[in-house]
Design a protein that fits this description.
By secondary structure, the chain is α+β, with helices and mostly antiparallel strands. Helices cover 61% and strands 6% of the residues. It contains 22 helices and 6 strands. The strands form 2 sheets. A 4-stranded mixed beta sheet has the order 1-4-6-5. Strand 2 (430-432) and strand 3 (437-439) form a beta hairpin. It is elongated and about 85 Å long.
Amino acid sequence: MLNNKLIKYTSRLPFHSPWFIIILFSVLGLIGILNHSMWRDELNPWLIIRDSQSLGDLIANIRYEGHPLLWYFSLEILRKIVDNPIIMQIFHLAITVASVTLFCLYSPFNYQQKFLFSFGFFPFYEYLLISRNYAFSMLFVFAFCTIFASRKITYIYLAILLGLLANSSAYGLLVSFPLSLTLLAEFCFDNEHRQQYFSQSQKYDLFLSIIIIIVSFIVCIYIITPPTDSYLHGGLNNGWLTKLDIRHLLRSINRIFGAYLLIIPQHKKWLDLIICAAIALLIVILTSIKLSKKPVALFFYIIGNSVIFAFTYFRFIGMPRHFGHFYLVLIAALWLESYYQESLIILTKFSVRPNSIIFIHKWHHIALMLILYVQFFGGIYSFSRDLVIPFSAGRETAQYVQKAGLANEFIVASRDANMAPLSGYLNRKLYYPEIKKMGSFTLFKSGRQDVEQTEILSQINSLLKNQDELKKILLILNRKLNINRNDLKIVPIKDFQRGWVDTERYYLYWVDEA
């Protein structure tokens, strides 16, 4: 009796409330994101917004990025409020906090699972500290799951969320499409749901919802389709894979393993590839069998994984921010499962014994808890590492340039794609040898060409000779200068090598005529 009272009292303590998770996440998130040193992939979109000359110019520039409009238009609004990229970080924090809030308050997971998920690798690091459009995926997927029951009366709210999800990122589109197919499949094959919907919905609700989704998909596909003069095609410069490649197939399967357990096996080691792929497939099979009593949730899980996997294999192998959408599909499928009564249609068709399902549920729970714990420790480690080791040396370099009174000097900076942090934090344009003019953001298109250090010094020499007002130039490189010229006097100033991204460590030099 005393033990029961103690348990009852403990359950009322603040730290056992979902709001404890939300508040703790928000406080730590604010500390983490203000400490985070942004890198090129975060600041390049901000620079596109800052330095595009018109709306048409902005949209034209975005098309080289391989991303839809939503993130960029959000930044455009934010910049009108505060012309400082820190507002982008605060906005990104708000997106992630909103996502975690929806998850903690409305998802069917227990308290322990909510806590582990919230401080896992993707919510607590990848989609929190690194301010990019991928955090929208988590927000809109969780919002979709939260209001999923509204489909019995109207599809418009879900259609709007699917449209926003599709226009948040290419991977958002890859999740939005299976969710749309899931709604369509349920509508077509569930007579009871269809009759209930028609008895409560407005006359044009279905038609309007379909239009919203179709138009959203068309806009997204148009924007992410790169212009003909883009030579990186939004970062996808390897083309389509149209043949069977067993090693690449295993690598693609292992993106699921990486999304769940945060380990990417070395692609040169066959044994690692095979073992990790087998574990990933085992988890997928366990989850599929677990969802077999909820056909709609199972349908989404299978289609969602299949669409992302197909893109991973045929087009782009991806990074954690990309294949993390496998993890979102898993969480969303388990969330959507809670909306349905159990159905034995699939089990009866395959003559599966009830005892076998109980056994599968047990092992699926073990696998899910393993995933959540791995995600949790990965999140704590990555978040803590970012507090100690700057993600990029860009902010520290920019702070030095400002404190040393060098911010107004003529600055030649190379490689241009790695100089977005400096242009963003200094709030000015720099001279880029790759395009032979002043610039800030980088578009990989005709007119831009990577240059060697010899060409950089040659352009500096021309600048000093042709512009009388230039007495010396501040040269900033992301690689140590390893050559010299007899007609130039080059004096090292300082270097900044504390950064997790090895291509964003900076070396500063004074250059003038010898």
